[in-house]
Amino acid sequence: MKASFSIAVIATLLASPGASGMDAAPADNAAGPVIEMGDIERFYRVYDAAGGRPTAETLQRDYVDPGSEGLHQLARLRNVTGESIAQAIAKRPEIYSEARDCVGVLPRVRTRLTGALSELKNLYPEARFPAITIAIGRGRSAGVGGRETGVQIGAETLCATAWIEPDIEDRFVRVITHEFAHVQQAVAFSEMEGATVLSASLEEGAAEFVTELTTGSIAYSYMPRLTAGRESEIETAFVADIDKTDLSNWLYNSKPDAPADLGYWVGYRIVKAYYHHADDKRQALRDIFDMKDPKVFLAKSGWKPGIALD
């Protein structure tokens, strides 16, 4: 896909001076959520000046160090350094060359995000919407979101993960919405020492459920095909592992040729069961975001392996 605009022009189109900061809500800003692209503009200036092969030292000095707070958060959370980016460019140069064109969908993405996040604000008035930082990382993180850290998108990774969702526009909209759901969560279980299969799966599953609630589909759209006819088998195995702190069989284990992350799907099903059984849906959504005890939430959800929810 060829972009219609340069990155600089896209950044100008996405600029929205009236809404920034942790409490800026798209419902109050008709232009849509703030999408910051200064980091990606700067990366491609460095990248082009080096003929597509910038050194680790140059990347650190001219891209990472002078970066935005959002880029620095991504660097801290996902080990993004000049060295790690240089190594990733050497291994997978195509994802860095292709990302420049891929971000041409962002003006349309913001239009759709305005609707999705406004719906979230309607369902959950306490929702907060920090600016979204679009940056370039080390080819490992498509998106990061948290209450204290905001939302960061690794453009080179998200653009290259067609296995998550083949349609690039849908992919951006739903992954960003997923990360905004994480911003609302009281506890980031997966970042805690001793996180369990249950706690991390509920964290990710809640974000998937909220994405479906506000956009009409989960972000990881391959899940229904991967799990069809195996629901009871998968979920029975999940129950046996809920207290394990080794997450590798359930979470963060997808590969392009072998999509997995089944903990996302089971967690989504547990959260959906909780919401489905609740009489007060607004309170149920608050409970989902305010979850602090995964075992108590599971017990109250009414979920069981193989439960029918549609």
Automatic annotation (TrEMBL):
Keywords: Signal. InterPro entries: DUF2268 (IPR018728). The keyword Signal applies. Residues 1-21 form the signal peptide. It comes from the Bacteria. Residues 171-279 form the DUF2268 domain. This is Lytic murein transglycosylase. It comes from Montanilutibacter psychrotolerans.
